[in-house]
Amino acid sequence: MKALVAYSTRTKNTQKIGELIAEGILSSGIEVDTVPVRDIERAEDLERYDALVFGSATEGEDVMWGMEKMLKLAEEANLKGKVGGAFGAYGWSGEAPEKIYVIMKNTFEMDMVRSFLRLKAGEIEDNKEEARAYGHEIARKTTK
């Protein structure tokens, strides 16, 4: 079993959340690749994972450009039925994780966990366990 945690970040807050989620997945015995979205070049690269977790900071009430580009690429991949999750850091409004979640569920037809994870940028340290628990949830759904 293998999972991918891919993120788009500007201030490294979303990256920190992604790394915590990856810790949760890894502690369940699933191999994890944690990468910035710019490292994903082909749709086929996504198909080799059993679970995919995409994260983006919210930029002007939307996902960051890098994540948007990667989601367009992901449309070419067959992700139907794969386990999925979405996350992101935010300063004010935090719409990006929900937008990613909806695309993964409705467009890619992925088997999504209960909800997306959204953490306020200044409160990540206080919510490390919540992020790790999200990773555990991804792992549980993947190994079912």
Give the biggest beta sheet.
Answer: 6 strands, parallel
User: Taking Cα atoms only, what radius of gyration do you get, to the nearest Å?
Assistant: 13 Å
The average pLDDT is 96
Number of helices: 5
Element string (H = helix, E = strand): EHEHEEEHEHEEH
Describe it for me?
The chain has 144 residues and is α/β, with parallel strands linked by helices. Helix content is 39%, strand content 26%. The strands form 2 sheets. Strands 1, 2, 3, 6, 7 and 8 form a 6-stranded parallel beta sheet that branches. A two-stranded antiparallel sheet has the order 4-5. The chain has 5 helices and 8 strands, in the order E-H-E-H-E-E-E-H-E-H-E-E-H. The protein is globular. The mean pLDDT is 96.
Outline the fold blueprint.
Layout: E1 2-8, H1 13-26, E2 31-36, H2 44-47, E3 51-56, E4 58-59, E5 62-63, H3 65-74, E6 83-90, H4 96-107, E7 111-112, E8 117-120, H5 128-143
Parallel strand pairs: 1-2, 1-3, 3-6, 6-7, 6-8
Antiparallel strand pairs: 4-5
Helix pairs in contact: 1-5
Give a nutshell description of this structure:
By secondary structure, the chain is of the alpha/beta class. The protein is built from five helices and eight strands. The termini are close together.
Tags for this model:
144 residues, alpha/beta, Rossmann fold, six-stranded parallel beta sheet, two-stranded antiparallel ribbon, 5 helices
